[in-house]
Amino acid sequence: MHPEIYRMKYYRTTLKGVIDLLQKIFVEGLYADKVISYALKNNPKWGARDRSFVAESTYELVRWWRLINESLAEENDNSVTNHYRLFATWQLINGNELPDWEEFAGIDKNKIIENASKLKSDRKVRESIPDWLDELGSKELGEEVWSREIAELNKPAKLVIRVNTIKITSGQVQRMLKEQEIETITSEEYPDALIVLKRKNLHNLVQFKKGWFEIQDASSQLVAQYLQVEPGMKVIDACAGAGGKSVHIGALMNNTGTIISMDLNEKKLEELTRRAERAGVTIIETRVVNDLVVDQLTNIGDRLLLDVPCSGLGVLRRKPHTKWKLSAEKIEEIKNVQKKILSDYSKMLKPGGLMVYATCSILPGENELQIEEFLKTHPAFELEEDRKVMPSEGFDGFYMARVKRISW
After folding, report:
1. Which CATH homologous superfamily contains domain 219-405?
2. Is 360 among the catalytic positions?
3. Pseudo-torsion of CA 68, 71, 73, 75, nearest 10°?
4. Residue 239: partners with Cβ closer than 8 Å, 6 or more residues away
5. What is the pTM of this model?
6. In this structure, are residues 70 and 119 in contact, taking their beta carbons and an 8 Å threshold?
7. pLDDT number for residue 6
8. Which residue is catalytic, options 356, 360, 389, 390?
9. pLDDT tens profile 33-80
């Protein structure tokens, strides 16, 4: 945990904001990142410290939900009263003092601290994950690797941007941000990335609105590069979502060629179109996925990106609510979807072309084992190379496999 972020005076209005968000997440079943973003946009009177308190407090409470509940050791009825007590528990675990408010009456500080200390010997409680996930992670990755990676996934995510090289250079963006007292560093491995040293709300910056950069984790930026695209190619992004990787591909192609961006969700494609316009990428065509569209695109892609649905376990840092929404059964369903996408969509790649299969999971069952099974049943394809980025390397967990179609 990171208590130094939160040692500040409490205000009832911002704490109520946190409690309201917990209600939306744990009672209404909404996603933490979505409701936090909505709350920040709809409370313009909150200052920078208020915004930070609400957002970071909510994320940390979601992240450590199991440890907090078991340290409080009371029945969680997900009421407003209970959520105030859970907030108090989290503060005490972090060594902070509570204000003398009626919402915190009867809280046994010593008992909570004693409980938390005892519980931290149990990994699944210490790292605040469901039993089934702890069992699955240790089974697929081994005890040592799983222990290391789940601990890393409980740390706050780094803020990384990708410079849009169609419009500007990394050096120019870095200098402009520095003039606004936003310090960044570069990384040789991630040529278009700038790592922001202190969290800021970047969406309101003129540089963002002009499409000079996108907010995109460094690991995610590797996926488009892994495709080895060239200007003039025909590239299919078959699970494009809101288009972060499609837009990056457009920049790598110098905005020359064709990108066909596909998704089941038409609203996501509308967002992709807006994103591409902001970035100045004009070579993207969007298609809503259906069997007819896939058949029409058979054997035409020089490159094919399958950034498939996955468990999202590699991005728990920024989406901690995921672990409370998943189940072992749900992951099996996801793996079946991945298998079907690989089998059905791979026919869109022409002989000699390259396909990248990507997930933001760290589980072999969603990654290398899927590719192994695909290659056994599809002899027209061969593996060129694959790569797994683990959270302990500092960024999101990702898997990428580059596969070549060698024959019809």
Report:
1. Vaccinia Virus protein VP39 (3.40.50.150)
2. yes
3. 0
4. 262, 263, 305, 306, 307, 308, 309, 341
5. 0.93
6. yes
7. 45
8. 360
9. 999 999 988 888 888 889 889 999 999 999 999 999 999 999 999 999
